[in-house]
Amino acid sequence: MADIISPLPGIFYRKPAPDKEPFASEGDRIEAGQAIGMVEIMKQFSEVRSEVSGTLERFAVEDAGAVNPGDVIAVVAE
Amino acid sequence: MTFKKLLVANRGEIAVRIIRTARELGLRTVLAASEPDATSYAAELADEVEVIGPAAAARSYLKTEAVLGAATATGCDAVHPGYGFLSENAGFARAVADAGLTWVGPAAGAIELMGDKSRARQAARDAGVPTFRGSDALTPADDADAIAAEVGFPLVVKASSGGGGRGIRLVTEARELQRTLEMARAEAQAAFGDPTVYLEQFVSNARHVEVQILGDGERVIHLGDRDCSLQRRQQKVVEEAPAPALPEPVRARILESSTELGRQCSYRGLGTVEFLYDPVSHEAAFIEMNTRLQVEHPVTEMITGLDLVREQLLVARDGRLRLNQQDVTFTGHAFEFRVNAEDPASNFLPSPGTLSRLDWPGGPGVRVDSGVVTGSTVAPFYDSLLAKLIVWDSRRDDTIARSIRALGEVRIEGVKTTLPLLQAVLSRSEVRDVVHSTKFIESTPDLLGVSS
Fold it and tell me: Which domains are present in chain A?
């Protein structure tokens, strides 16, 4: 199991835009370096990437939820 | 329509600004606040606070039902939207009016008209406002190549539903046109839900000037002009009033035609007509009109002695202007500096945190509109604007000297701010001599990466 950690404080989004598909869903196979969401800090957006390949086990933060640096955003089963 | 209790549907410095004037007018205020903002400085000043949702603006400040629900739940009979968020949302303006509350702003129809940038351009032309060479809204059936050839290259493709510098693409030669149009339409659809675009002549080295208007639906007056050319990434950094180095015939034309535009669309409340001014050809032309209170309104207040929020509330309440054009006089020169929680030394990285020290300057001609006090938390969820420092003096040169003095007195600890950029900008001869353009900050490497 590997945790994907938020590097920044802000709002976590699972979709690139409200009417778009999510970056990834629970149960998806993801590759190292793949974006699984993004964090908005003061109107600037940064993608959140997985450092490992595996199965996206679960999200620990809801869509449009607040995050702090170091918070676990999602868990990946390697 | 008379009202006694005002919902302030915003946050930060502008919420504080609105609460202050409302209190002077004897109005009770309710702040619609997100959860983290329920303990903000604005919340402390408001008579009541109503929590409208969690941190994300999409789930609080942008949620029309939650904001309107806060107004009705607390017995408010008027709503002031401030700027940003729902301030230019025609559907929200209509919902407020339909609920029997007073909307402090123009009629929904005027918001819709000006929100559609190609229709707004047409309305401006009809009122005699100078516009750049350009096209109407382009449909895929139009012969874009022929229309573009008439406009001339370089040109910009603009999204009809864009605005505020968003949804604009530059085309330098004819063979790029079709590809750029396709991309611009796809982008406009994704960003604004509307693929409509139009073409407009491109002007390099232009300045941004704008006219403040105030109307009651029948009579419309102007409150002078401003210059907002000092920008970074199409976001204003420093503004001033009056616009310097603007030939008097150009000034007269934009003031008069902006007022006429307001008259022709039966404009009620405060509005800003924005222009690009080409200092080489001495031509000013319409860009867009903002149908709300503007961030930089204090520079107009400093040179007119008026309280624009008061005038806005009085027009909404009484339905008519109490001022005539000849009541408005202009004295001196004012600058506004936006103090943002961003680090200019690290590419303007946002810098949230807790303000351990916050000392503002004083002395004659110095005003601070702040959304924070010592100990305030600067949350990462919203715009980075902390406060605005506004400085007035009788002449532009003197205002620059006073501004350098005032900026030098500011002490902020706990977050990084854009103060070093503001100081560096003011010391430039280009700014003193008014030979800068809207690209000046971005094209001057010495100004980027400055640190204290």
Answer: 2-77 (2.40.50.100)
The token pair that represents B261 in the structure block: 């535009």
Phi, psi angles (nearest 5°) of residue B271? -150, 160
Helices (H) and strands (E) counted in chain A, each on its own, are 0, 8
DSSP β-ladder status, B78-80 and B5-8:
parallel
pLDDT digits (tens), chain B, 452 positions: 799 999 999 999 999 999 999 999 999 999 999 999 999 999 999 999 999 999 999 999 999 999 999 999 999 999 999 999 999 999 999 999 999 999 999 999 999 999 999 999 999 999 999 999 999 899 888 999 999 999 999 999 999 988 777 788 999 999 999 999 998 998 888 788 889 999 999 988 999 999 999 999 999 999 999 999 999 988 999 999 999 999 999 999 999 999 999 999 999 999 999 999 999 999 999 999 999 999 999 999 999 999 999 999 999 999 999 999 999 999 999 999 999 999 999 999 999 999 999 999 999 999 999 999 999 999 999 999 999 999 999 999 999 999 999 999 999 999 999 999 999 999 999 999 999 999 999 999 889 877 75
How many A/B residue pairs have CB atoms within 8 Å?
A: 43
Test the B interface: residue of A6, A42, A63, A71 with most B CBs within 10 Å: A42
Check if B418 contacts A (Cβ < 8 Å): no
Residue closest to B215 by CA, chosen among B261, B257, B267: B267
Q: Which residue of A has its CA nearest to B34?
A: A66
Record the tokens describing residue B394, joined without a space.
Answer: 């009788």
- Choice among B121, B226, B251, B292 that is catalytic: B292
- Other CB atoms closer than 10 Å to residue B258's CB: what's the count? 28
> Which residues of chain A make contact with B350, given a CB cutoff of 8 A?
41-42, 44
End-to-end CA distance of chain A: 6
Task: State both tokens at B127.
Answer: 């009122």
* Cβ contact A64–B56 (<8 Å): yes
- Contact list, B192 vs chain A (CB under 8 Å): none
Interchain CB contact of A15 with B (< 8 Å): no
Strands B155-163 and B197-201: antiparallel
Enumerate domains of chain B plus CATH numbers.
5-104 (3.40.50.20), 133-201 (3.30.1490.20), 207-448 (3.30.470.20)
Is residue B263 annotated as part of the catalytic site, yes or no? no
Q: Which amino acid is at B220?
A: V
Contact call for residues B162 and B168 (beta carbons, < 8 A): yes
Q: pTM to 2 decimals?
A: 0.94
Residues A34, A54: Cα–Cα separation, whole Å: 11
CA B400, B12, B69 angle in degrees (round to 5)? 150
Tell which residue, B153, B146, B144, B149, has the closest CA to residue B202: B153
A43 interfaces chain B, CB cutoff of 8 Å: yes
Separation of alpha carbons B218 and B334, rounded Å? 30
CB contact under 8 A, B56 and A17: no
Beta bridge partners of B94: none
